[in-house]
Amino acid sequence: MRWVFGDCMLDLDRRELARASAVVAVPPQVFDLLVYLVRNRERVVSRDDLLDAVWGGRIVSESTLASHINAARRAVGDSGQEQRVIRTVARKGFRFVDEVRETDAPAEAGSANAATGEAPAVPARPSIAVLPFVNLSGDPEQDYFADGVVEDVIAALSRHRWLFVVARNSSFTYKGRMVDVKQVGRELGVRYVLEGSVRKAKNRVRITGQLIDASTGAHHWADRFEGVVEDIFELQDQITVSVVGAIVPQLERAEIERARHKPTESLDAYDYYLRGMARLHLGTREATEQALPLLHKAMAFDPDFAAAYAMGAWCHCWRKVNGWMADRPLEMAEGIRLARRAVELGKDDALALTRGGHALGHLHGDLEGGAALLERALVLNPNLAAAWFLGAFLRLWSGDTDSAIEYFTHAMRLSPLDPELYRMQAGMAVAHLFAGRFDMASSWAEKAFRDLPSFLMAVAIIAASYALAGRMDDARRMMKQVRQLDPSLRLANLSEWLPIQRAEHLAILAEGLRKAGLPE
Protein backbone atom coordinates (compact mmCIF):
# COMPACT_ATOMS: atom_id res chain seq x y z
CA MET A 1 0.00 0.00 0.00
CA ARG A 2 1.26 3.46 -0.99
CA TRP A 3 -0.28 6.84 -0.20
CA VAL A 4 0.65 9.71 -2.52
CA PHE A 5 0.02 13.34 -1.55
CA GLY A 6 1.62 16.53 -2.87
CA ASP A 7 5.19 15.60 -3.78
CA CYS A 8 5.30 12.85 -1.13
CA MET A 9 4.77 9.11 -1.15
CA LEU A 10 4.24 7.06 2.01
CA ASP A 11 5.11 3.39 1.42
CA LEU A 12 3.60 1.24 4.19
CA ASP A 13 5.26 -2.01 3.12
CA ARG A 14 8.74 -0.51 3.08
CA ARG A 15 7.99 1.90 5.95
CA GLU A 16 9.47 4.64 3.84
CA LEU A 17 8.63 8.27 3.11
CA ALA A 18 9.83 9.83 -0.16
CA ARG A 19 9.57 13.51 -1.02
CA ALA A 20 10.56 15.01 -4.36
CA SER A 21 12.08 11.64 -5.38
CA ALA A 22 14.36 11.50 -2.31
CA VAL A 23 13.89 9.22 0.67
CA VAL A 24 13.35 11.19 3.88
CA ALA A 25 14.85 9.79 7.09
CA VAL A 26 11.90 9.52 9.49
CA PRO A 27 12.10 8.17 13.07
CA PRO A 28 9.81 5.15 13.64
CA GLN A 29 7.31 6.94 15.91
CA VAL A 30 7.06 9.91 13.53
CA PHE A 31 6.39 7.48 10.68
CA ASP A 32 3.67 5.74 12.74
CA LEU A 33 2.14 9.12 13.57
CA LEU A 34 2.00 10.05 9.88
CA VAL A 35 0.43 6.72 8.97
CA TYR A 36 -2.23 7.13 11.65
CA LEU A 37 -3.07 10.67 10.55
CA VAL A 38 -3.35 9.68 6.89
CA ARG A 39 -5.40 6.58 7.67
CA ASN A 40 -7.82 8.69 9.72
CA ARG A 41 -7.81 11.74 7.47
CA GLU A 42 -11.62 11.93 7.37
CA ARG A 43 -11.76 13.01 11.00
CA VAL A 44 -9.97 14.95 13.71
CA VAL A 45 -7.81 12.67 15.86
CA SER A 46 -7.40 13.56 19.50
CA ARG A 47 -4.28 13.57 21.64
CA ASP A 48 -5.50 10.38 23.33
CA ASP A 49 -6.03 8.73 19.93
CA LEU A 50 -2.39 9.42 19.05
CA LEU A 51 -1.11 8.21 22.42
CA ASP A 52 -3.01 4.92 22.02
CA ALA A 53 -1.96 4.38 18.40
CA VAL A 54 1.67 5.56 18.44
CA TRP A 55 2.78 5.22 22.06
CA GLY A 56 0.65 2.23 23.06
CA GLY A 57 -1.26 4.25 25.65
CA ARG A 58 1.89 5.38 27.50
CA ILE A 59 1.79 8.82 29.05
CA VAL A 60 4.09 11.25 27.25
CA SER A 61 4.54 14.96 27.76
CA GLU A 62 2.89 17.63 25.65
CA SER A 63 6.32 18.72 24.45
CA THR A 64 7.08 15.19 23.21
CA LEU A 65 3.82 15.05 21.27
CA ALA A 66 4.40 18.54 19.87
CA SER A 67 7.95 17.69 18.78
CA HIS A 68 6.69 14.60 16.93
CA ILE A 69 3.92 16.59 15.20
CA ASN A 70 6.52 19.18 14.16
CA ALA A 71 8.86 16.45 12.92
CA ALA A 72 6.02 14.94 10.86
CA ARG A 73 5.29 18.34 9.35
CA ARG A 74 8.95 18.92 8.46
CA ALA A 75 9.16 15.48 6.90
CA VAL A 76 6.32 16.24 4.45
CA GLY A 77 7.40 19.84 3.78
CA ASP A 78 4.80 21.45 6.04
CA SER A 79 5.14 23.84 8.99
CA GLY A 80 3.18 24.97 12.03
CA GLN A 81 2.51 28.30 10.32
CA GLU A 82 1.25 26.89 6.99
CA GLN A 83 -0.54 23.73 8.22
CA ARG A 84 -1.41 22.80 4.64
CA VAL A 85 -0.87 19.08 5.31
CA ILE A 86 -1.33 18.57 9.06
CA ARG A 87 -3.78 20.98 10.67
CA THR A 88 -4.12 21.69 14.38
CA VAL A 89 -7.76 21.89 15.47
CA ALA A 90 -7.89 23.98 18.64
CA ARG A 91 -8.76 21.97 21.77
CA LYS A 92 -9.70 18.99 19.61
CA GLY A 93 -6.57 17.50 18.06
CA PHE A 94 -5.12 17.16 14.58
CA ARG A 95 -6.26 16.32 11.08
CA PHE A 96 -4.46 15.35 7.87
CA VAL A 97 -5.96 17.73 5.27
CA ASP A 98 -3.93 17.18 2.08
CA GLU A 99 -5.49 15.22 -0.78
CA VAL A 100 -4.36 11.58 -0.76
CA ARG A 101 -4.24 9.06 -3.59
CA GLU A 102 -3.91 5.35 -2.77
CA THR A 103 -2.09 2.82 -4.94
CA ASP A 104 -1.63 -0.89 -4.39
CA ALA A 105 0.58 -1.69 -7.38
CA PRO A 106 4.22 -2.37 -6.45
CA ALA A 107 6.86 -0.70 -8.56
CA GLU A 108 7.99 -3.13 -11.25
CA ALA A 109 11.70 -3.71 -11.71
CA GLY A 110 12.94 -1.18 -14.21
CA SER A 111 9.74 0.90 -14.04
CA ALA A 112 9.46 4.49 -12.91
CA ASN A 113 8.72 5.37 -9.33
CA ALA A 114 4.94 5.58 -8.91
CA ALA A 115 4.98 9.02 -7.34
CA THR A 116 7.82 10.76 -9.09
CA GLY A 117 8.27 9.18 -12.51
CA GLU A 118 11.89 8.42 -11.64
CA ALA A 119 13.87 5.43 -10.45
CA PRO A 120 13.59 4.98 -6.66
CA ALA A 121 16.19 6.81 -4.60
CA VAL A 122 18.67 4.78 -2.58
CA PRO A 123 17.63 4.97 1.11
CA ALA A 124 19.87 6.75 3.60
CA ARG A 125 20.33 3.51 5.55
CA PRO A 126 22.04 0.47 4.00
CA SER A 127 19.87 -1.30 1.46
CA ILE A 128 20.06 -4.70 -0.19
CA ALA A 129 18.27 -6.83 -2.74
CA VAL A 130 18.62 -10.62 -2.65
CA LEU A 131 18.27 -11.92 -6.19
CA PRO A 132 16.88 -15.40 -6.95
CA PHE A 133 19.72 -17.93 -6.75
CA VAL A 134 20.48 -19.68 -10.02
CA ASN A 135 19.60 -23.38 -10.05
CA LEU A 136 22.63 -25.16 -11.56
CA SER A 137 21.29 -28.67 -10.94
CA GLY A 138 19.85 -29.09 -14.41
CA ASP A 139 16.57 -30.10 -12.77
CA PRO A 140 13.77 -27.51 -12.88
CA GLU A 141 12.09 -29.32 -10.00
CA GLN A 142 14.89 -28.11 -7.74
CA ASP A 143 13.89 -24.47 -8.18
CA TYR A 144 11.73 -24.75 -5.07
CA PHE A 145 14.81 -25.39 -2.95
CA ALA A 146 16.77 -22.44 -4.37
CA ASP A 147 13.75 -20.14 -4.02
CA GLY A 148 13.16 -21.32 -0.47
CA VAL A 149 16.72 -20.47 0.52
CA VAL A 150 16.42 -16.94 -0.92
CA GLU A 151 13.06 -16.34 0.75
CA ASP A 152 14.49 -17.41 4.11
CA VAL A 153 17.54 -15.14 3.64
CA ILE A 154 15.28 -12.18 2.79
CA ALA A 155 13.15 -12.84 5.87
CA ALA A 156 16.21 -13.16 8.13
CA LEU A 157 17.85 -9.98 6.80
CA SER A 158 14.57 -8.08 7.26
CA ARG A 159 14.86 -8.63 11.02
CA HIS A 160 17.82 -6.22 11.07
CA ARG A 161 15.98 -2.90 11.44
CA TRP A 162 19.02 -0.87 10.35
CA LEU A 163 18.90 -2.64 6.97
CA PHE A 164 16.46 -1.85 4.15
CA VAL A 165 15.63 -5.12 2.36
CA VAL A 166 13.75 -5.21 -0.94
CA ALA A 167 10.66 -7.40 -0.74
CA ARG A 168 10.63 -10.84 -2.34
CA ASN A 169 8.07 -9.89 -5.02
CA SER A 170 10.35 -7.16 -6.36
CA SER A 171 13.63 -9.08 -6.33
CA PHE A 172 12.01 -12.17 -7.90
CA THR A 173 11.07 -10.21 -11.02
CA TYR A 174 14.69 -10.90 -12.05
CA LYS A 175 14.29 -14.68 -11.87
CA GLY A 176 15.58 -16.40 -14.99
CA ARG A 177 17.07 -13.19 -16.41
CA MET A 178 20.65 -12.24 -17.14
CA VAL A 179 21.09 -9.03 -15.18
CA ASP A 180 23.67 -6.34 -14.60
CA VAL A 181 24.11 -5.71 -10.89
CA LYS A 182 24.50 -1.95 -11.37
CA GLN A 183 21.21 -1.90 -13.29
CA VAL A 184 19.51 -3.85 -10.50
CA GLY A 185 20.77 -1.31 -7.98
CA ARG A 186 19.35 1.56 -10.01
CA GLU A 187 16.01 -0.12 -10.68
CA LEU A 188 15.40 -1.27 -7.11
CA GLY A 189 17.07 1.68 -5.38
CA VAL A 190 19.56 -0.36 -3.35
CA ARG A 191 23.25 -0.07 -2.50
CA TYR A 192 24.05 -3.80 -2.28
CA VAL A 193 23.01 -6.92 -4.16
CA LEU A 194 23.36 -10.52 -2.97
CA GLU A 195 23.39 -13.10 -5.73
CA GLY A 196 24.24 -16.77 -5.76
CA SER A 197 23.69 -20.24 -7.13
CA VAL A 198 22.52 -23.63 -5.93
CA ARG A 199 23.95 -26.91 -7.18
CA LYS A 200 22.23 -30.11 -6.01
CA ALA A 201 23.50 -33.55 -6.93
CA LYS A 202 22.05 -36.70 -5.34
CA ASN A 203 21.95 -35.93 -1.62
CA ARG A 204 24.45 -33.06 -1.52
CA VAL A 205 23.84 -29.34 -1.96
CA ARG A 206 26.34 -26.55 -2.57
CA ILE A 207 25.33 -22.90 -2.21
CA THR A 208 27.57 -20.09 -3.43
CA GLY A 209 26.91 -16.42 -2.76
CA GLN A 210 28.51 -13.06 -3.35
CA LEU A 211 27.76 -9.60 -1.98
CA ILE A 212 28.28 -6.80 -4.50
CA ASP A 213 28.24 -3.00 -4.23
CA ALA A 214 25.66 -2.07 -6.85
CA SER A 215 27.09 1.42 -7.35
CA THR A 216 30.66 0.31 -8.15
CA GLY A 217 30.40 -3.40 -8.93
CA ALA A 218 32.99 -4.14 -6.21
CA HIS A 219 32.82 -7.50 -4.43
CA HIS A 220 32.57 -7.27 -0.62
CA TRP A 221 32.23 -10.97 0.12
CA ALA A 222 31.99 -14.39 -1.52
CA ASP A 223 31.73 -17.86 -0.01
CA ARG A 224 30.17 -21.27 -0.43
CA PHE A 225 28.23 -23.55 1.88
CA GLU A 226 27.69 -27.29 1.57
CA GLY A 227 25.38 -29.78 3.22
CA VAL A 228 23.74 -33.18 2.96
CA VAL A 229 20.05 -33.32 2.16
CA GLU A 230 18.34 -35.29 4.88
CA ASP A 231 15.80 -32.85 6.27
CA ILE A 232 15.42 -30.30 3.48
CA PHE A 233 13.92 -27.62 5.75
CA GLU A 234 16.62 -28.03 8.38
CA LEU A 235 19.25 -27.64 5.66
CA GLN A 236 17.56 -24.45 4.43
CA ASP A 237 17.65 -23.09 7.98
CA GLN A 238 21.35 -23.95 8.35
CA ILE A 239 22.22 -22.28 5.07
CA THR A 240 20.18 -19.17 5.98
CA VAL A 241 21.99 -18.81 9.30
CA SER A 242 25.37 -19.25 7.59
CA VAL A 243 24.69 -16.76 4.81
CA VAL A 244 23.13 -14.08 7.03
CA GLY A 245 25.79 -14.52 9.70
CA ALA A 246 28.48 -14.01 7.07
CA ILE A 247 27.12 -11.03 5.18
CA VAL A 248 25.69 -8.86 7.99
CA PRO A 249 29.17 -8.05 9.42
CA GLN A 250 30.37 -7.40 5.85
CA LEU A 251 27.52 -4.96 5.27
CA GLU A 252 28.34 -3.19 8.53
CA ARG A 253 32.03 -2.93 7.57
CA ALA A 254 31.15 -1.63 4.12
CA GLU A 255 28.82 1.02 5.58
CA ILE A 256 31.43 2.07 8.14
CA GLU A 257 34.00 2.45 5.38
CA ARG A 258 31.54 4.48 3.31
CA ALA A 259 30.79 6.80 6.25
CA ARG A 260 34.50 7.18 6.97
CA HIS A 261 35.08 8.64 3.50
CA LYS A 262 32.14 11.05 3.54
CA PRO A 263 32.94 14.74 4.13
CA THR A 264 32.27 15.57 7.77
CA GLU A 265 29.86 18.36 6.91
CA SER A 266 27.56 15.90 5.09
CA LEU A 267 27.19 13.49 7.98
CA ASP A 268 23.76 12.72 9.42
CA ALA A 269 22.59 10.67 12.39
CA TYR A 270 23.23 7.28 10.84
CA ASP A 271 26.71 8.19 9.62
CA TYR A 272 27.71 9.50 13.04
CA TYR A 273 26.35 6.28 14.50
CA LEU A 274 28.44 4.19 12.07
CA ARG A 275 31.59 6.12 12.92
CA GLY A 276 30.91 5.63 16.61
CA MET A 277 30.39 1.90 16.06
CA ALA A 278 33.67 1.66 14.15
CA ARG A 279 35.57 3.27 17.03
CA LEU A 280 33.83 1.18 19.67
CA HIS A 281 34.63 -2.09 17.88
CA LEU A 282 38.33 -1.26 18.15
CA GLY A 283 37.97 -1.59 21.91
CA THR A 284 40.84 0.67 22.98
CA ARG A 285 40.48 3.44 25.53
CA GLU A 286 41.26 6.16 23.01
CA ALA A 287 38.83 4.76 20.43
CA THR A 288 36.04 4.41 23.01
CA GLU A 289 36.54 8.01 24.13
CA GLN A 290 36.18 9.04 20.49
CA ALA A 291 33.08 6.87 20.01
CA LEU A 292 30.90 8.45 22.69
CA PRO A 293 30.82 12.02 21.24
CA LEU A 294 30.01 10.59 17.80
CA LEU A 295 27.07 8.65 19.23
CA HIS A 296 25.84 11.74 21.06
CA LYS A 297 25.92 13.61 17.73
CA ALA A 298 23.77 10.84 16.25
CA MET A 299 21.30 11.31 19.13
CA ALA A 300 21.28 15.07 18.56
CA PHE A 301 20.50 14.63 14.85
CA ASP A 302 17.77 12.09 15.63
CA PRO A 303 16.43 12.22 19.22
CA ASP A 304 14.50 8.98 18.63
CA PHE A 305 17.49 6.94 17.37
CA ALA A 306 17.21 4.05 19.84
CA ALA A 307 20.34 2.22 18.69
CA ALA A 308 22.50 5.33 19.20
CA TYR A 309 21.34 5.62 22.82
CA ALA A 310 21.98 1.89 23.30
CA MET A 311 25.52 2.02 21.94
CA GLY A 312 26.17 5.14 24.03
CA ALA A 313 25.12 3.21 27.13
CA TRP A 314 27.31 0.34 26.07
CA CYS A 315 30.30 2.68 25.78
CA HIS A 316 29.95 3.36 29.50
CA CYS A 317 29.63 -0.36 30.15
CA TRP A 318 32.87 -1.05 28.26
CA ARG A 319 34.62 1.75 30.15
CA LYS A 320 33.56 0.16 33.44
CA VAL A 321 34.79 -3.31 32.40
CA ASN A 322 38.22 -1.88 31.59
CA GLY A 323 38.55 0.43 34.61
CA TRP A 324 38.50 3.61 32.52
CA MET A 325 35.77 5.56 34.33
CA ALA A 326 37.02 8.89 35.64
CA ASP A 327 33.88 9.63 37.70
CA ARG A 328 32.37 6.22 38.30
CA PRO A 329 29.02 7.22 39.92
CA LEU A 330 28.38 9.90 37.29
CA GLU A 331 29.23 7.65 34.33
CA MET A 332 27.27 4.72 35.75
CA ALA A 333 24.20 6.95 36.11
CA GLU A 334 24.64 8.31 32.57
CA GLY A 335 25.01 4.79 31.13
CA ILE A 336 21.83 3.68 32.91
CA ARG A 337 19.96 6.76 31.64
CA LEU A 338 20.99 6.10 28.04
CA ALA A 339 20.13 2.41 28.33
CA ARG A 340 16.66 3.14 29.68
CA ARG A 341 16.05 5.65 26.89
CA ALA A 342 17.20 3.08 24.31
CA VAL A 343 14.83 0.44 25.65
CA GLU A 344 11.98 2.95 25.81
CA LEU A 345 12.46 4.04 22.19
CA GLY A 346 13.42 0.64 20.78
CA LYS A 347 10.77 -1.78 21.98
CA ASP A 348 10.86 -3.50 18.58
CA ASP A 349 14.53 -2.84 17.80
CA ALA A 350 16.62 -5.94 18.52
CA LEU A 351 19.90 -4.05 18.53
CA ALA A 352 18.64 -1.38 20.97
CA LEU A 353 17.20 -4.03 23.29
CA THR A 354 20.45 -6.01 23.13
CA ARG A 355 22.89 -3.24 24.01
CA GLY A 356 20.49 -1.40 26.29
CA GLY A 357 19.49 -4.57 28.11
CA HIS A 358 23.07 -5.67 28.63
CA ALA A 359 24.08 -2.22 29.88
CA LEU A 360 21.20 -2.23 32.38
CA GLY A 361 22.22 -5.68 33.56
CA HIS A 362 25.86 -4.73 34.00
CA LEU A 363 25.60 -1.13 35.18
CA HIS A 364 22.36 -1.29 37.14
CA GLY A 365 22.80 -4.86 38.42
CA ASP A 366 19.44 -5.97 37.00
CA LEU A 367 20.68 -9.20 35.42
CA GLU A 368 17.23 -10.77 35.28
CA GLY A 369 15.61 -7.74 33.68
CA GLY A 370 18.49 -7.37 31.25
CA ALA A 371 18.26 -11.04 30.26
CA ALA A 372 14.52 -10.63 29.58
CA LEU A 373 15.26 -7.73 27.23
CA LEU A 374 17.85 -9.78 25.38
CA GLU A 375 15.42 -12.68 25.05
CA ARG A 376 12.99 -10.22 23.48
CA ALA A 377 15.75 -9.15 21.09
CA LEU A 378 16.30 -12.78 20.06
CA VAL A 379 12.58 -13.19 19.37
CA LEU A 380 12.80 -10.17 17.07
CA ASN A 381 16.05 -11.28 15.43
CA PRO A 382 17.37 -14.79 16.22
CA ASN A 383 20.35 -14.18 13.91
CA LEU A 384 21.77 -11.24 15.88
CA ALA A 385 25.14 -12.47 17.17
CA ALA A 386 25.45 -9.62 19.69
CA ALA A 387 22.21 -10.68 21.38
CA TRP A 388 23.60 -14.19 21.81
CA PHE A 389 27.00 -13.23 23.22
CA LEU A 390 25.79 -10.39 25.44
CA GLY A 391 22.99 -12.62 26.67
CA ALA A 392 25.70 -15.17 27.42
CA PHE A 393 27.49 -12.65 29.65
CA LEU A 394 24.33 -12.02 31.66
CA ARG A 395 23.89 -15.77 32.15
CA LEU A 396 27.55 -16.05 33.07
CA TRP A 397 27.31 -13.39 35.77
CA SER A 398 24.11 -15.04 37.05
CA GLY A 399 25.99 -18.33 37.49
CA ASP A 400 24.70 -20.43 34.57
CA THR A 401 28.04 -21.29 32.95
CA ASP A 402 26.71 -24.15 30.80
CA SER A 403 24.05 -21.97 29.21
CA ALA A 404 26.58 -19.15 28.76
CA ILE A 405 28.97 -21.45 26.88
CA GLU A 406 26.12 -22.53 24.58
CA TYR A 407 25.24 -18.91 23.86
CA PHE A 408 28.86 -17.89 23.22
CA THR A 409 29.33 -20.90 20.92
CA HIS A 410 26.22 -20.07 18.94
CA ALA A 411 27.25 -16.41 18.59
CA MET A 412 30.66 -17.40 17.18
CA ARG A 413 29.02 -19.85 14.79
CA LEU A 414 26.60 -17.14 13.62
CA SER A 415 29.34 -14.57 13.04
CA PRO A 416 32.78 -16.22 12.82
CA LEU A 417 34.41 -13.03 11.48
CA ASP A 418 32.70 -10.67 13.88
CA PRO A 419 34.66 -7.53 14.87
CA GLU A 420 33.67 -8.29 18.48
CA LEU A 421 34.96 -11.85 18.43
CA TYR A 422 37.54 -11.05 21.13
CA ARG A 423 34.71 -10.19 23.52
CA MET A 424 33.10 -13.57 22.89
CA GLN A 425 36.43 -15.32 23.44
CA ALA A 426 36.94 -13.52 26.74
CA GLY A 427 33.47 -14.60 27.86
CA MET A 428 34.28 -18.22 27.04
CA ALA A 429 37.45 -17.85 29.11
CA VAL A 430 35.50 -16.65 32.15
CA ALA A 431 32.99 -19.50 31.80
CA HIS A 432 35.73 -22.14 31.73
CA LEU A 433 37.50 -20.49 34.67
CA PHE A 434 34.32 -20.71 36.75
CA ALA A 435 33.93 -24.34 35.68
CA GLY A 436 37.46 -25.17 36.89
CA ARG A 437 38.89 -25.78 33.41
CA PHE A 438 41.89 -23.50 33.85
CA ASP A 439 43.87 -24.52 30.75
CA MET A 440 40.84 -23.94 28.50
CA ALA A 441 40.20 -20.64 30.26
CA SER A 442 43.73 -19.38 29.60
CA SER A 443 43.58 -20.62 25.99
CA TRP A 444 40.40 -18.64 25.25
CA ALA A 445 41.65 -15.56 27.10
CA GLU A 446 44.93 -15.62 25.17
CA LYS A 447 42.96 -15.43 21.91
CA ALA A 448 41.14 -12.33 23.14
CA PHE A 449 44.41 -10.87 24.43
CA ARG A 450 46.08 -11.27 21.02
CA ASP A 451 43.30 -9.20 19.44
CA LEU A 452 43.20 -6.56 22.19
CA PRO A 453 46.15 -6.52 24.62
CA SER A 454 44.50 -3.72 26.65
CA PHE A 455 41.39 -5.83 27.45
CA LEU A 456 41.56 -5.88 31.26
CA MET A 457 39.22 -8.83 31.75
CA ALA A 458 41.15 -11.03 29.31
CA VAL A 459 44.48 -10.21 30.97
CA ALA A 460 43.04 -10.84 34.46
CA ILE A 461 41.60 -14.20 33.43
CA ILE A 462 44.95 -15.25 31.96
CA ALA A 463 46.70 -14.32 35.22
CA ALA A 464 44.13 -16.14 37.38
CA SER A 465 44.08 -19.22 35.13
CA TYR A 466 47.86 -19.49 35.08
CA ALA A 467 48.01 -19.18 38.87
CA LEU A 468 45.33 -21.81 39.47
CA ALA A 469 47.06 -24.14 37.00
CA GLY A 470 50.36 -23.75 38.89
CA ARG A 471 52.11 -21.60 36.26
CA MET A 472 53.22 -19.03 38.82
CA ASP A 473 55.94 -17.25 36.85
CA ASP A 474 53.57 -16.70 33.93
CA ALA A 475 50.81 -15.63 36.32
CA ARG A 476 52.99 -12.98 37.97
CA ARG A 477 54.10 -11.70 34.58
CA MET A 478 50.47 -11.22 33.52
CA MET A 479 49.60 -9.65 36.88
CA LYS A 480 52.09 -6.87 36.14
CA GLN A 481 50.02 -6.05 33.04
CA VAL A 482 46.82 -6.15 35.08
CA ARG A 483 48.31 -3.63 37.51
CA GLN A 484 49.42 -1.40 34.65
CA LEU A 485 45.99 -1.48 32.99
CA ASP A 486 44.07 -0.72 36.20
CA PRO A 487 46.14 0.22 39.26
CA SER A 488 42.94 0.60 41.33
CA LEU A 489 41.82 -3.02 40.95
CA ARG A 490 41.90 -4.90 44.27
CA LEU A 491 40.58 -8.18 45.62
CA ALA A 492 38.24 -6.12 47.78
CA ASN A 493 36.50 -4.46 44.83
CA LEU A 494 36.17 -7.42 42.42
CA SER A 495 32.39 -7.54 42.94
CA GLU A 496 32.17 -3.87 41.96
CA TRP A 497 34.19 -4.55 38.81
CA LEU A 498 32.20 -7.54 37.48
CA PRO A 499 28.61 -8.34 38.58
CA ILE A 500 29.36 -11.96 39.57
CA GLN A 501 26.40 -13.27 41.59
CA ARG A 502 27.52 -16.73 42.71
CA ALA A 503 29.88 -16.62 45.69
CA GLU A 504 31.83 -19.69 44.56
CA HIS A 505 32.56 -18.14 41.16
CA LEU A 506 33.74 -14.91 42.73
CA ALA A 507 35.91 -16.97 45.09
CA ILE A 508 37.56 -18.82 42.16
CA LEU A 509 38.46 -15.56 40.45
CA ALA A 510 39.67 -14.00 43.69
CA GLU A 511 41.82 -17.02 44.58
CA GLY A 512 43.47 -17.03 41.16
CA LEU A 513 44.18 -13.30 41.24
CA ARG A 514 45.42 -13.51 44.85
CA LYS A 515 47.91 -16.24 43.90
CA ALA A 516 49.00 -14.17 40.90
CA GLY A 517 49.73 -11.21 43.20
CA LEU A 518 46.70 -8.88 43.16
CA PRO A 519 46.68 -6.82 46.40
CA GLU A 520 43.90 -7.06 48.95
Give the tags.
Rossmann fold, Serine Threonine Protein Phosphatase 5, Tetratricopeptide repeat, 520 residues, alpha+beta, Arc Repressor Mutant, subunit A, 6-stranded mixed β-sheet, globular
Rg (C-alpha, Å): 25 Å
Query: What fraction strand?
Result: 5-15%
Q: Ranges with pLDDT <50 over ≥5 residues?
A: 105-117
Please identify the structural class as seen in this structure.
Answer: alpha+beta
Main sheet summary: 6 strands, mixed
Determine the CATH superfamily of the largest domain.
Answer: Tetratricopeptide repeat domain
Principal-axes geometry comes out as globular
Q: How is this structure best described in words?
A:
- The protein has helices spanning 28-39, 47-54, 62-75, 143-158, 168-171, 181-188, 232-260, 269-282, 285-301, 306-321, 328-345, 350-363, 367-380, 385-398, 401-414, 421-434, 438-451, 456-468, 472-485, 494-497, 503-516; strands at 2-5, 8-11, 16-19, 22-24, 86-89, 93-96, 101-103, 127-130, 134-135, 164-165, 192-201, 204-213, 219-228.
- It is an alpha+beta fold.
- The chain has three domains: 2-103, Arc Repressor Mutant, subunit A, CATH 1.10.10; 127-259, ABC-type transport auxiliary lipoprotein component (Rossmann fold); 383-520, Tetratricopeptide repeat domain (Serine Threonine Protein Phosphatase 5, Tetratricopeptide repeat, Alpha Horseshoe), CATH 1.25.40.
- The strands form three sheets. Strands 8, 9, 10, 11, 12 and 13 form a six-stranded mixed β-sheet that branches. Strands 4-3-2-1-7 form a five-stranded antiparallel β-sheet, with helices on one face.
- A hairpin with a 5-residue loop joins strand 12 and strand 13.
- Helix 10 packs parallel to helix 12.
- It starts with a strand and ends with a helix.
